Amino acid sequence: MSSSLLAMGIFTLVGAITPGPVNVLALRHGAARSRLACACYVLGASGSYAAVVWAMGQGAHWLMQALPHLSTAAEWLCAAYLLWLAWRLAHAPVETPVTEAQKHNDSARMLQLLLQGVAVQTLNPKAWLVALAGIGLFVLPQANRAMAQWQFCTMSLLACLIGVGCWALLGQWLSGWLHTPRRQRRFYRLLALLLVASVAAMLA
């Protein structure tokens, strides 16, 4: 049991911490927002991923396989949403400097960031594919599938909190370097390019 939980933990953490659209946006919010605002985004993305894993375990993977057009439509919907976010990032306004006072004015945006985390993760094909693979590896082969699914959902939630949270903390660390409009503009455009690259990788 302990070895299977260890394997499950490694699988979920690797899936959560590797680069992707959710983590790119966490990096951006970490650089420009307060820790509490970043936490809202991380919680939204992590809770959404746990829900994706649960849905896959309840049979969504059979639906996706039975209706391949639904999967294709979901991929294109996600691609369109991420490209729109990339455009927003590339044209994001800059501040000189990004002060702590400005960061603490994020209270009105916390719900928006929470919902953005939910939306980006729900529309992220990487999340569905990793969940599908994990269900096949760690849930379906078990005699007690209900218990295995709860374990995998819990592990996925914890791994996502750690993985996305690490990217947000990296953004917080970079915020001290982003004290000029020029650096902020370059940073946002780099993140926009990373989002476009992740979309291209998804559709390849």
From TrEMBL:
Q: Name one GO biological process term.
A: cysteine export across plasma membrane
User: Recorded GO terms, molecular function?
Assistant: amino acid transmembrane transporter activity
Which InterPro entries does the record cross-reference, listed alphabetically? Answer: LeuE-type
Q: Give the primary localization class.
A: membrane
Q: Where are the transmembrane segments?
A: 36-55, 123-140, 152-174, 186-203
Question: Does the keyword section mention Secreted?
Answer: no
* Topological type in the membrane: Multi-pass membrane protein
Localisation per UniProt entry = Cell membrane
For this record, the Gene Ontology CC terms, alphabetical, are: plasma membrane
Output the superkingdom of the source species. Bacteria
Signal peptide residues are none
What is the protein's name according to its record?
Answer: Lysine exporter protein (LYSE/YGGA)
Q: What organism is listed for this UniProt entry?
A: Comamonas testosteroni (strain DSM 14576 / KF-1)
Lineage summary: Bacteria, Pseudomonadati, Pseudomonadota, Betaproteobacteria, Burkholderiales
